[in-house]
UniProtKB/TrEMBL annotation:
This is Choline kinase. It holds the Pfam family Choline_kinase. One of its GO terms (biological process) is phosphatidylethanolamine biosynthetic process. GO terms for molecular function: ethanolamine kinase activity. Keywords: Kinase, Transferase. PANTHER family: CHOLINE/ETHANOALAMINE KINASE (PTHR22603), ETHANOLAMINE KINASE (PTHR22603:SF66). CDD domains: ChoK-like. GO terms for cellular component: cytoplasm. The keyword Transferase applies.
Amino acid sequence: MTPEDRIHALGIWQGPIEIAPIAGGITNRNYLVTDRACRRVVRLGDDIAIHHINRRNELAASLAAHAAGLSPAVIHHEPGVLVLNFIEARALTAADIQDVRVLARVVPLVRACHRHVARHFRGQAMIFWVFHVIRDYAATLTAAESGYTQMLPALLEKAEILEQAAGPFDIAFGHNDLLAANFLDDGKRLWLIDWDYAGFNTPLFDLGGLASNNELSKDAERQMLETYFDRPLTGDLWRRYNAMKCASLLRETLWSMVSEIHSTIDFDYAAYTAENLARFKRAYKAFERDQ
């Protein structure tokens, strides 16, 4: 069954529908569907165990995020399908988030995620522990005899150093995939979408991911941390944060290495691997200088 046939078969539409692919998804396929009454976003994607993606968890997080006022409403769901209310909005870019005025709007939304989504979450919840994910990805790559296998021992050694440096850890309910495109601006407010990797984690992982995914300057990082924690930045917090930022970049690198082998989505994962590996190496050198 094609994606279009699957969407037609949902039985929730009022009259004929128009289906338009939404570009950008690299773990699922997204479509804008228009019927005679409204527009909806349809996300098609099954569990991806190799990436720790569980669609029941994604559904529960999406429902909780909507109840917390952060994310669009879930209209319909069934295995492998999530239908969401369409928000007339523009996805942010990295350049947007680098703007200090936009960053000042983004940070409170991330903090609201950490403080409020868990209160609405129902059922078994995931833990997204980046260092476990890194080790698991390395094992997957080794088993697949990946071309990256020889570099894995050194990367895992660095991961162990980062895990020690990043503690002690606070725990909150995190989004864990703060790409710029997961923030929508409708002209009045921001929305946070795409809860594939949601789960309990340290807030510093989301903050590190927000900075690394959007290549924030050091000054912007300091602003982000002081806004989030509402207090002056300390040397200890800066060191712990930088360790988690490095871990975020390392996880993204290994994610892409694994995707090179296993993903069927048309995306240049090899280039994405190279880009993130280079960014990880730069960030890790900066982390070492600060120790």
